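Dear H.,

Thanks for agreeing to be a second pair of eyes. The structure we're designing against is below in token form, covering all 695 positions.
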């Protein structure tokens, strides 16, 4: 028996309760406790049926992820009681058991619930099999029981996306039989009804509903295409296909085998690393409680400013967006409205939700409208004088305790703190475009920042559904600094012999969401151009500099918005442009380089080495608190494949000695700026990994 699971008698119903905060994860002790309580329920003649319930904030949210790093336990030990064994105990029960679901019933939690004989859910509850998100597949019968319950196509969708299904959809799919307001009594009634009937369904005995095989196979193929290198969704789809023809026990054994293989592999290790890294990055490094934020202001209504306003309004904040002049205000209003109109048209917003969100955003040409705001975020052009002017005026207008933030992607926040009366309330909130969609939020922490303001920013990030990472001050902060470093290696590869589409293809096939030149065309080449011009006076003239991007921008080719950049853009498609090929070849010729093919593996290994080396410098300087924070930034903001775990984790997997050797090679070839970081050298000398610095 375990303290974490108890059996209570409620008349003729045995209530099995799991109490394992924070999310009732199925740790070894919980699994053993469940089997013991199911046995006790069976043995007690006064009990006719059972209800499986949880204390705390949620029904079981899955297996205990922390146990996945442990070795497989010896047979016969407490740890060896698997989730499958819990499900088998429920299958073998001579008394019906109904699961009472609330909060997020996920992974092994849903699998245990599926082996129960009935399920009741609270209206706010959600269910899902999100194992693919940590590089696994459901390993306790989920790939076999769910298709039997909802049909193979719906199961394939749920299992390969890992999405959370709301209670109403769970009801219509048949995952639950009832949405209840009074959960435990409703589950008890349902259990008694089954006991009265004397018969109850066991999913393992049910046939899988028939499916159009061609449609199913097409859906499996689509999963493979969407996976972009991730293996878990592909394996999960295979496992669902076994439910079409394999006997239940055979399929269950194959599922277990596939689960263990994934669990031991690098992709799941990487995704579990990101799961822990996300949560570590979001923890406030202070005990100070966050300050209340109810009203916010945004200055600047361009793409970023309006996206930020939407993001804030979506989470229930009242937002005032300030622009200069009537025309700019009208344009900002149109941008905000267009996003909400699209969400209404696609069914993501109801009429009421649409109206409520629009009502939360007001527009003004007067900065005085921000006098009572708890928080103001500036999102105007990237010009330090203009930003200082805004901060000076804000300092005079806003409340003394208002938080003043800048959305700058590069500039020194300390220079903004310098011009206000309360510098301890100034910080950077660097959103990524489109701000209402992208998950990452870099919280830039100047030296004078008050701990409570930092805590407030982290709490705000959670509230608006963003993944925060705290960064110190440096040009480009964590993300753009690393991005501009590895971009240089790509430009070197252009000069050495590759073409933009070859580099994009090499990195996309490595798992990146988009290659750097496709990204540049999407983001606009004028932005990087302006940035390079700003940094030109401080550029190390001895460092290798590739002029290709400047030449393209000088031609007015700013990417998709002008129809041409690194590619030609016609009818929404990108095409290779012979003019760019000629321009790249000219760059090589001017440097006296004889162009040679650049293998994809060299592009990939150099990009990774450049990221890891710059990441190590960022750590040395204290700009990032831990290597895993850098991974979080690259995965959530820059399309780095999550299944590689971010550049620091990927460098660990590749071996830091190999990475260091590549850095030395790049240094030998490209000179100043490519010196190996001291930290990287030390770690290699001490045979340690970046992970050893995560704490
Ligand atoms: N195991 C262990 N710890 C878990 C956990 C799990 N499955 N799920 C969450 N936690 C921990 C978190 O690490 C965090 O700990 P911390 O406070 O020390 O940082 C704490 O619970 C709270 O989690 P969140 O901060 O994420 O809280 P939220 O309320 O934002 O989200 C959640 C809750 C939706 C449950 C989210 O944590 C989540 O998605 N968890 C993962 C669920 C999952 O992947 N389940 C499948 C596991 S694999 C499996 O079941 C295999 C099976 O098929 C055999």
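And this is the sequence the design step returned. I haven't edited it by hand at all.
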């Amino acid at each position: 028996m375990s303290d974490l699971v108890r059996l209570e008698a409620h008349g003729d119903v045995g209530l099995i309760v799991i109490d394992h905060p924070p999310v009732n994860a199925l740790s070894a002790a919980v699994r053993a406790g469940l089997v013991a309580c199911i046995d006790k329920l069976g043995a007690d003649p006064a009990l006719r049926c059972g209800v499986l319930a949880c204390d705390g904030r949620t029904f079981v949210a899955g297996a205990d992820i922390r146990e996945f790093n442990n070795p497989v336990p010896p047979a016969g030990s407490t740890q060896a009681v698997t989730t499958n064994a819990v499900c088998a105990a429920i299958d073998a029960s001579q008394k019906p058991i109904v699961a009472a679901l609330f909060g997020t019933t996920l992974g092994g939690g849903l699998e245990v619930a599926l082996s129960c004989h009935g399920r009741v859910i609270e209206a706010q509850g959600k269910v899902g099999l999100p194992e693919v998100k940590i590089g696994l597949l459901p390993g306790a019968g989920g790939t076999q029981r769910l298709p039997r319950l909802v049909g193979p196509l719906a199961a394939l969708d749920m299992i390969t996306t890992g999405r959370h299904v709301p209670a109403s959809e769970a009801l219509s799919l048949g995952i639950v039989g009832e949405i209840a307001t009074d959960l435990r009594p409703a589950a008890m009634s349902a259990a008694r009804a089954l006991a009265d009937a004397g018969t109850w369904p066991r999913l393992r005995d049910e046939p899988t509903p028939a499916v159009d095989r061609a449609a199913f196979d097409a859906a499996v193929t689509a999963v493979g295409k969407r996976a972009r290198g991730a293996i878990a969704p592909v394996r999960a789809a295979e496992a669902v296909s076994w439910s079409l023809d394999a006997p239940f026990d055979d399929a269950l054994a194959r599922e277990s085998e596939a689960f263990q293989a994934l669990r031991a592999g690098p992709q799941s290790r990487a995704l579990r690393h990101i799961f822990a890294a996300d949560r570590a990055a979001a923890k406030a490094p202070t005990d100070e409680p966050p300050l209340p934020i109810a009203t916010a202001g945004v200055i600047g209504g361009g793409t970023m400013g309006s996206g930020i306003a939407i993001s804030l309004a979506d989470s229930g904040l009242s937002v005032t967006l300030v622009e200069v002049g009537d025309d700019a205000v009208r344009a900002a209003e149109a941008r905000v409205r267009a996003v909400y109109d699209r969400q209404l048209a696609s069914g993501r917003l109801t009429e009421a939700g649409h109206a409520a969100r629009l009502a939360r955003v007001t527009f003004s040409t007067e900065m005085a409208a921000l006098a009572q705001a708890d928080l103001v975020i500036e999102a105007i052009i990237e010009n330090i004088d203009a930003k200082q002017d805004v901060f000076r005026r804000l300092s005079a207008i806003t409340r003394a305790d208002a938080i003043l933030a800048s959305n700058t992607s590069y500039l020194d926040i300390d220079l903004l703190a310098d011009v206000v009366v309360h510098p301890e309330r100034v910080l950077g909130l660097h959103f990524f475009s489109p701000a209402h969609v992208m998950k990452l939020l870099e919280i830039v922490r100047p030296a004078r920042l008050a701990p409570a303001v930092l805590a407030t920013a982290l709490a705000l990030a959670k509230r608006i559904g963003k993944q925060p990472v705290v960064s110190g001050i440096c040009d480009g902060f964590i993300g753009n600094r690393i991005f501009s470093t590895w971009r240089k290696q790509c430009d070197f590869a252009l000069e050495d012999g590759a073409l933009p589409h070859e580099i994009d293809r090499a990195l996309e096939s490595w798992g990146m969401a988009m290659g750097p030149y496709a990204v540049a065309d999407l983001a606009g080449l004028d932005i990087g151009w302006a940035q390079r011009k700003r940094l030109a006076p401080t550029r190390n003239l001895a460092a290798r500099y590739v002029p290709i991007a400047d030449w393209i921008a000088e031609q007015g080719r700013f990417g998709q918005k002008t129809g041409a950049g690194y590619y030609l853009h016609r009818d929404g498609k990108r095409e290779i442009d012979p003019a760019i090929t000629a321009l790249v070849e000219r760059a090589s010729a001017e440097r006296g380089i004889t162009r040679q093919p650049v293998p994809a593996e060299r592009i990939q290994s150099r990009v990774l080495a450049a990221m890891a080396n710059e990441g190590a410098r960022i750590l040395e300087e204290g700009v990032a608190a831990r290597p895993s924070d850098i991974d979080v930034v690259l995965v959530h903001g820059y399309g780095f494949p999550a299944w590689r775990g971010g550049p620091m984790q990927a460098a660990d997997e590749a071996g830091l000695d190999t990475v260091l050797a590549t850095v030395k090679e790049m240094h030998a070839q490209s000179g100043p700026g490519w010196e190996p970081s001291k930290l990287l050298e030390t770690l290699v000398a001490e045979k340690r990994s970046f992970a050893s610095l995560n704490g």
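Two observations from my side: Residues 297 and 376 are 4 Å apart (CA to CA). The longest helix spans residues 600-620.

Warmly,
E.
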